[in-house]
Amino acid sequence: MREEIKRIPSEEIARQRDFARQVRFHPDRPRTYYIVTYGCQMNAHDSEKLAGMLEEMGLTESADRTQADLVLHNTCCIRDNAERKALGNVTWLKEVKKERPEMLIGVCGCMIQQAEMAQKILKQYPFIDLAFGTGNLYRLPEYLLEAVENKDRVVRVDSEASTVPEGLPVHRESAIKAYITVMYGCNNYCSYCIVPYVRGRERSRLADDIVREAEGLVASGVKEIMLLGQNVNSYGLDSDEGVSFAQLLHRVSQTGIERLRFMTSHPKDLSDALIDEMAHNPVIAPHLHLPVQSGSNRILHDMNRRYTREHYLQRVAALRSAMPDIGLTTDLIVAFPGETEQEFMDTVSLVEEVRYDSAYTFIYSPRKGTRAADMPGRIDPAVASERIERLIAAQERITGEVLASMKGQTVRVLVEGASRRRAAQLTGKSGRNINVNFDGSKDDAGTFVNVRITGAGSNTLRGEKED
Ligand code: SAH
Ligand code: SF4
Ligand code: F3S
Q1: At what angle do helices 140-150 and 10-24 cross, to 10 degrees?
Q2: How do beta strands 60-61 and 32-37 pair?
Q3: Ligand 1 nearest-atom number relative to CA 194
Q4: Of 350, 453, 466, 334, whose CA–CA distance to 398 is shortest?
Q5: CATH 2.40.50 location in the chain
Q6: How far is the CA of 164 from the centre of ligand 3 (A)?
Q7: Contact indicator for 293, 334 with CB cutoff of 8 Å
Q8: C-alpha angle with apex 51: 49 to 56, nearest 5 degrees?
């Protein structure tokens, strides 16, 4: 049965704020927090909301995980290694808690939203004090108050996955770049993917709420906004507002924001209207993350991606003909069940044909409850490793060539701050989302500068600031 979409009424958010006040004035409340975030941008942004709620409850961020009063793990379960990493870290913290029994250990996010997780935590992880899923994240104040008052464990992983909470406080990581969620959840059910099960049904925020949030960010000095959704191209299809994603992009671009990005786009839904908006709107960065997953039509079919290699390449051609300088990036999965050597080579040949700026490459990881987990033809791990290495080598060569070809170009860089390698150098991102290092002054941080590219590394560019 399909779960109902639930817009959380403002009275409920107000009730949570009241719980937050009670925590703030509770003598036994935790004083400091540390959030460990796994997974994608959605999770990174959820962590900013969790931090916002914790700050409202009077907690301050700790620089040291082992010294914090509350350590919250915002987990991911997209692949087995993501899950193992999170569980490994949580279990490691159990030893620290033996020394500091007052420490509260919390776990939330996608891993927790999986079926039967609540029982598993209650039985196998008795040192976890607080657990909640993705849909009830907004209830953190209520749960924390309960944990503090009753000095007992709070494990709340109910079926509430498809919520839309508005008006949560957000403690943002950066004053320059910000995320805005435009839609939650996913309806696509790609056969390998757990996201639809742990993030609930597709549900769009109202365009006015999104625009208002963008306006607030612009007023506070933010220079770049990234709009987030698992498949932003289906923005609005679940509501009767009648605003498409291309129209939403246009509206947000009018708020005075200087640079606008978005992810992720599903190739089956990439419309001409969106390409047109990108091509004619100078605020929208010339970059598109367009996950292809595989270059083989048989594999794409079994993945339930609902497009062909030919359709994908046609969309790439349309993008490039409208925007010759657009940078494309992608996600690729190797060793999907039954993948033959020839089918794998179809992915390599697609990568050669598209010439992405960069690609995220993954070995298929079976996820319980998804359709692909029951498909025959599991690929031997040694074959899978060998394939991913060949794919990475091909993409690295292409990335090197693409970057080298940018020498002599002038790119607009949003300066983030000092480069990690050399303190005298600044670093920032070009419109195509490529890291650019150059000599400049600290005053440039948070501004756009024009940089002439003089050299390229394996995945960064070097250049000189132009006057
Ligand atoms: N909504 C986005 C991606 C979300 S997950 C989209 O549709 O593109 C990010 C990436 O993880 C996916 O693009 C896919 O390449 C990879 N991924 C998802 N499930 C996986 C699995 N079971 N094994 C390996 N990689 C997976
Ligand atoms: Fe997963 Fe597919 Fe949805 Fe992306 S579109 S989140 S890969 S089900
Ligand atoms: Fe993101 Fe991982 Fe969840 S990729 S949506 S945090 S399963």
Answers
A1: 40
A2: parallel
A3: 19
A4: 350
A5: 410-465
A6: 17
A7: no
A8: 95
- Whether 108 is in the pocket of ligand 3, judged by its Cβ within 6 Å, is no
Q: Distance (Å, rounded) from C-alpha 217 to C-alpha 212? A: 9
Domain covering 6-158: architecture: 3-Layer(aba) Sandwich (3.40)
Do 195 and 78 meet the contact criterion of CB atoms below 8 Å apart? yes
The b/e string for 386-416 (b: 16+ C-beta within 10 A; e otherwise) is: ebbeebeebbeebbeebbeebeeeebbbbbb
Q: Is the CB of 199 within 6 Å of ligand 1? A: no
DSSP state, residue 418:
E
Closest C-alpha to ligand 2, atom 4: 230
Residue type, 103: M
Fold annotation for 410-465: OB fold (Dihydrolipoamide Acetyltransferase, E2P) (2.40.50)
Neighbours of 12 (CB within 10 A): 16
Q: Does residue 245 have its Cβ closer than 6 Å to ligand 1?
A: no
Q: Which residue's alpha carbon is nearest to atom 10 within ligand 1? A: 331
Nearest to 358 by CA among 319, 402, 322: 402
DSSP 432-458: T--EEEEE--GGGTTSEEEEEEEEE-S
Does the predicted model carry a pTM greater than 0.90?
yes
Candidate from 266, 268, 302 with most ligand 2 atoms within 8 A of CB, to mutate: 266
pLDDT, tens only, 370-416: 999 999 999 999 999 999 999 999 999 999 999 999 999 999 999 99
pLDDT higher for 280 or 8? Answer: 280
In the chain, CATH 3.40.50.12160 sits at: 6-158
**CA distance readout (Å), 370 to 300, 303, 330, 459:** 16, 11, 22, 34
Q: Whose CA is closest to atom 2 on ligand 2?
A: 190
- pLDDT: is 140 or 151 the higher one? 140
Q: What is the pLDDT of residues 262-292, one digit of tens each?
A: 999 999 999 999 999 999 999 999 999 999 9
